[in-house]
Design goal:
Rossmann fold; seven-stranded mixed beta sheet; disordered N terminus; 360 residues; alpha/beta
């Protein structure tokens, strides 16, 4: 990042062509807070904004009269009614006291995580804006889609998927999507989610040009891994064809910085085989007992009979050893026996022998 600092003003510019980007201005006299929020937002390289930060009123008004500010995030103590005379399309107040200064303006609680604040900014902006400038990935290789699926039950598929995702996320920008019928994520993470993957698909179908902003308003993080909350009701995914999922994955690749997309797949998704066919790598976890072997054999035979044999050819099967201890929470997946196994066995397979780029 290039950074320019003037008295009362910080202008943060990300790499790449900014001609089509719009200005998001942060005006807050609390300099430390403004810096932290700016740094968090500018790490999101695929957003359609360049970020200006002001801590001085004169600098703010001087710039606002010469620059077209698209969205203003202003603290409650900095807000004056004459700000509205600047004709800024979107003004959001960072509320401190809880008092609703101007009911006509949108308010966000200032004292919450930067991630939550950005979610709320992007949700509001995406809903209110008729058109959003498109952003395109530059200088990145093709996003690798890793599909993880097994017909064998109770074999650590989600634990495997989350561990792989969190370890990849230490070096590569990675997104995880879970398609379980009952994921239990809300309980396990002690979080309530306002939206989930079914909402993302809905908004993609309605306005795909806003996908990157909508994605940013929904993405959560666990152990450094980005994820979209799984569907609270799997019925909300009914009728979504495999081709639609692949179309959305392609749009995510085109407009975001993600290098890996991990799909934790189950039979609950429609056109599962078409989705698997669209993956670059497929991992299937199995067991050594007779029933597990029989299920895998039946699954592979049906694929062959239905002309989906190419799925088998790009599949790596993993028969995991018995682990004495597994992480107690989703946030600790990169520690312990399974993580060591992934580092020595799975990563060389994924990245290539002699190219195990995983770093502690």
């Amino acid at each position: 990042m290039e950074q320019f600092i003037l008295p009362g003003l910080v202008l943060q510019i990300g790499k790449g062509d900014l001609l089509d980007k719009r200005i998001l201005a942060i005006f807050d006299s609390e300099e430390g807070y403004a810096y932290r929020l700016m740094e968090f937002i500018t790490e999101k390289k695929n957003l359609p904004f360049e970020v200006y930060v002001f801590t001085n009123r004169d600098k703010f008004y001087s710039c606002a009269k010469t620059k077209d500010i698209e969205c203003l995030l202003i603290s409650e103590n900095a807000y004056k009614q004459d700000v509205e005379n600047l004709k800024i399309p979107h003004i959001i107040i960072l509320s401190e006291s809880g008092a609703n200064i101007n009911k006509a303006l949108h308010h966000i609680n200032k004292y919450q995580s930067c991630e939550t604040i950005l979610h709320q900014i992007m949700e509001y902006y995406t809903d209110q804006s008729e058109a959003i400038p498109m952003t395109f990935r530059t200088g990145l290789r093709k996003m690798q889609i890793i599909g993880i699926y097994t017909p064998v039950g109770r074999c650590l598929q989600t634990t495997f998927s989350l561990t792989l995702g969190q370890m990849l996320a230490r070096q590569f920008k990675t997104l995880y999507l879970n398609f379980e019928i009952y994921s239990g994520f809300s309980k396990m993470l002690s979080r309530e989610f306002n939206s989930d993957i079914s909402d993302l698909m809905y908004y993609f179908n309605c306005a795909r040009e806003k996908l990157v902003c909508r994605l940013e308003s929904m993405v959560e993080t666990i152990g450094g891994l980005d994820f979209i909350p799984p569907a609270q009701m799997i019925q909300n995914l009914n009728g979504i064809r495999g081709s639609q999922w692949l179309d959305m994955f392609h749009e995510i690749e085109k407009t975001s910085e993600y290098e890996y997309l991990i799909l934790d797949l189950t039979d609950g998704i429609m056109d599962l085989w078409d989705v698997l066919r669209g993956c670059d790598h497929i991992y299937t976890i199995t067991k050594g007992d007779g029933l597990a072997i029989a299920k895998i054999e039946q699954y592979e035979k049906i694929l062959e009979d239905m002309n989906y044999g190419d799925i088998t050819s790009k599949t790596t099967k993993w028969r995991l050893p018995v682990f004495k201890h597994l992480p107690a929470s989703f946030e600790e997946m990169t520690y312990g026996e399974l993580a060591r196994y992934m580092k020595t066995q799975v990563f060389p397979d994924l990245l290539g022998e002699g190219k195990n780029e995983y770093k502690e």
